[in-house]
# Entry
Amino acid sequence: MLMQTNPGSVVNLEVTDGNKFQYLFIAFVASIQGFSYCRPVISIDATHLKGKYRGVLFTTVCHDANQQIFPLAIGRVKDVFGENPALVIVSDRHRSILSAVEEAFPRAFHGICIYHLLNNLKTKFKSKNKELEQHYIVAAKAYNLQEFHVLFYTLCSAVPGAKEYLESVGLDRWTRSHVPCRRYNIITTNISESFNAVLVKVRELPITAFVNEVRLLCQRWFQQRRTKANGCSSRMSMDVENKLEERRDRAQTMDVRFKFFFVQKTQYDPYDLCSLYYTREFWCETYRGVIQPIPHISSWVVPPPISTFQLNPPDVRTVAGRRRKRRLPSMENKTL
# Structure
């Protein structure tokens, strides 16, 4: 029914030999079309479902021009967004995500969330040293190689063995200075974790109710943000305009010749230095698509192959007692 009301959407249901539920993938056509106007950097994260049959939820999101979460897909990772040589995937180092990304996006560059890697670093070397965290974060965010090498040397001197470990991960996967493509400002999976936090209550529902709640959420976001983008009168999105204004004001208090002074003296337009992905035009195009509602079940027209199909629940061992809704703290969290 979702594909009937939203033609072009992708819904993929996989079952076992006994017609038992295994995987589900959903990408709304509005999200597929809108992604063309977003920065080609995707954040992927996984979280646990809390319903009777449990399971794992994969969420795939990115940033729109206004720096807000743009939902792309839910369910098992699958490539439905076309070939893009500039595509970048950001995730943690969980094996299931690594294998899924390699299968779905074999040509995309796969970066690592710097905070997840920091937690792994603390766990491996059993360190609670605040200097470790400070040196690591600054080194990861360094823009040029000279600055990075100085900071990286300081980090490795403070933690013996860190150099070999971080180099084995790949310097290009967690540092700005070595990345071979554009990651923009997306160096963590914070947007995925924020989206999962929005769904924290919904994850307790049965899968059909869960999917419907996600559709309602995306439908509401698209409508609200479409209205906001169409009402914007500036050349850039509201968030970017505010940041430009803040940096103009900050530059005027500096003694050094900041970029905006250079731009003004050489009579260049500051907006020419901004990517098209931050413009009002791209913001509006991102939310041009509409996620249509699902009609009442009494008006559904379901073809026979689907109407007669019996979907069985997955095989899940039932644990005695009340289901846990909060996860136990991991070793990574204990080291924070």
Observations:
- The first helix runs from residue 2 to 5.
- The longest strand covers residues 41-48.
- The CA atoms of residues 53 and 316 lie 6 Å apart.
